[in-house]
# Entry
Amino acid sequence: MTPSNPPDAATEVVDLATSAAPLATAAPAPVAVVEEDPGGAMTFFEHLTELRTRIIHSLVALAIGACLGIAVSQHMIVFITKPIIKALTDAKQNPHLIYTHPAGYLSLYITVGVYLGIVIAAPYVLYQIWLFVAPALYKHERSAISGFVASTFFLFLGGIAFGYYVALPYMLKFLVSFQGNVGPIEPMISTADYFDLVLMVLLGFGVVFELPILIFFLTLFGIVTPKFLWQNFRYAILIIAIVAMIITPTPDATTMLIFMAPMVALYIVGIGVSAVVVNKRKKRLAAEQAAT
# Structure
């Protein structure tokens, strides 16, 4: 037998190298990069640490806001008492409020300052809540919730502004004029009673102005539709009248109508919000059916 020729082995090595060359020079296939939310990679204890950080920051903000609120509390007291002073002056009554406890004014001074501090710190506290919640949400959820929080906040402020500038003056005018027509009896209004009334009216209107948000959620869960809301408009007016009659602190019809007017307008706005939600849902379902 003739031994194998060495050049044949070398030729085999060259052939292997030649066949492997295209593999070495071929462009690598693109790798899909999946973008993940950073919140999903956090452990339970990391979430607790993050929660503690946000709570500490919020408490510090509330403390700073309270200090600032107390510093300007006197100016806020003057601002809040303007409607009652005007009502008493127009009724030719003594335009002063009284307090019946030695620490009455000091208590009012601190209370108004703390409330004002909460309002001052509220945007930062909401931002801390957002920083804790946002990493666990998708991008479309983040945009939806940010719009929801903003609309809720501004509607609440709008309700407070309407209560202070529109409802409260009419209400005080009726109450003071009614008391001023009772012979020798004249009103001596205490600061505590007046500020309780103001707080009830302003918070009441702030909550009432959240009606479009309530309708939004009811539509989102399929409980109501724009057609249902419009068909039952007269029943809604009846319910609004009953609610206004209950929450109105005065028995006159004018104040009741003042309470009813924004509620009816907000109900109509809620119908529009409901229509937007339903139309978006229909478009999404149509797109999913077309894709399948």
